[in-house]
Specification:
Length: 273
């Protein structure tokens, strides 16, 4: 049966807020968790991913988990270790102990951020698109923690039969705000479509997918995402003219434009907390 009750970790964050708006339309009952309180959500579970007792209670009885909680930018290794590496392990252990069989893991393009982007004119040929099995090349400790999360998911499938869809999200915001985002943008509505597909597709084992809309300037291969039943409907192209007029085309000589991870490879944004 399709999962109904879903634990959404990181529910106070940007993507969590978007998914709180969009996922109930698909019939999900969301249980919310974050270390920060969520305005207007008095029933949300306020807990740190370090709190194994709270996690155990939070996952009890849910059909699936969408795991968004964690540090979403670059940070000192010790902080990434605690929130993203140990935190994700703690969540998987709680899920294993409570018999939760499906997790959707918010991985990131930064797990492969040091992969050179396709060069030349978009749209790129299918054989130029970056496949999901490209060697992982994290661009930050942050990206490294997402690489760990994907391996953890594989281990929990192989060892315990727990299924995960690891979604290497591009940039999921209301609108694309940079020329790079024209290639990696995932509209919130397509994000909800992809999470729904990841929650309901059968027999996913551990599947890695890229998370983006069907952008004209797409850099990566959406085949594994589409195989889950995901049909993206949006394309960043209507934003292209304005963004390129403001920012110029991507410059092949600029290191911050040369890789999938964009400016994360040279000047990553730092987690402010
Ligand atoms: P965000 O920073 O807005 O939200 C993350 C949430 O996790 C925050 O509300 C924060 O309070 C919570 N959190 C952090 N550490 C925690 C801990 N130890 N215990 C419990 N909660 C904790 O990030 P955003 O943009 O909403 O991203 C959500 C997830 O998706 C993150 O895992 C991020 O790495 C991933 N992602 C997001 C992308 C995007 O375009 N928004 C792109 C690629 C990946
Ligand atoms: C991410 O992984 C970040 O969490 C998000 O804030 C964006 O910076 C995104 O990648 C991106 O690559 O644009």
């Amino acid at each position: 049966p399709a999962p109904r009750t879903v634990l959404l970790t990181g529910a106070a964050g940007g993507l969590g807020t978007l998914m709180r708006e969009l996922l109930p339309e698909y019939g999900y009952e969301l249980r919310l968790l974050d270390v920060r309180p969520i305005e207007g959500e008095p029933d949300a579970i306020i807990a740190d991913l370090a709190d194994t007792g709270a996690l155990r209670e939070a996952v009890r009885g849910v059909d699936a988990i969408i795991h968004l909680a964690g540090i979403s930018l670059e940070a000192p290794f010790e902080k990434i270790l605690k929130a993203n590496i140990e935190g994700t392990y703690n969540l998987y252990e709680a899920a294993r102990e409570e018999g939760v069989e499906r997790i959707v893991f918010a991985s990131s393009n930064h797990a492969v951020g040091f992969t050179p982007r396709p060069q030349g004119d978009a749209p790129f040929d299918a054989d130029a698109l970056i496949p999901v099995d490209t060697p992982r090349r994290p661009d930050t400790f942050y990206g490294l923690s997402k690489s760990f999360g994907e391996d953890l998911a594989q281990l929990y499938w192989d060892l315990h039969g727990m299924e995960t869809v690891s979604v290497r999200i591009g940039s999921c915001f209301r609108e694309p705000t940079s020329v790079r985002m024209l290639s990696v943008w995932m509209s919130p509505e397509d994000g909800a479509r992809l999470f729904h597909a990841a929650l309901t597709a059968e027999d996913v084992k551990h599947t890695v997918v890229y998370g983006s809309s069907a952008n004209t300037r797409l850099w990566w291969d959406l085949t594994t995402a589409r195989a889950l039943g995901y049909e993206p409907r949006d394309d960043s192209e209507p934003y292209a003219e304005k963004l390129i007029a403001e920012q110029g085309e991507l410059d092949p000589e600029n290191v911050a434009h040369a890789y999938l991870g964009g400016h994360f490879v040279s000047e990553p944004p730092i987690w402010p907390y």
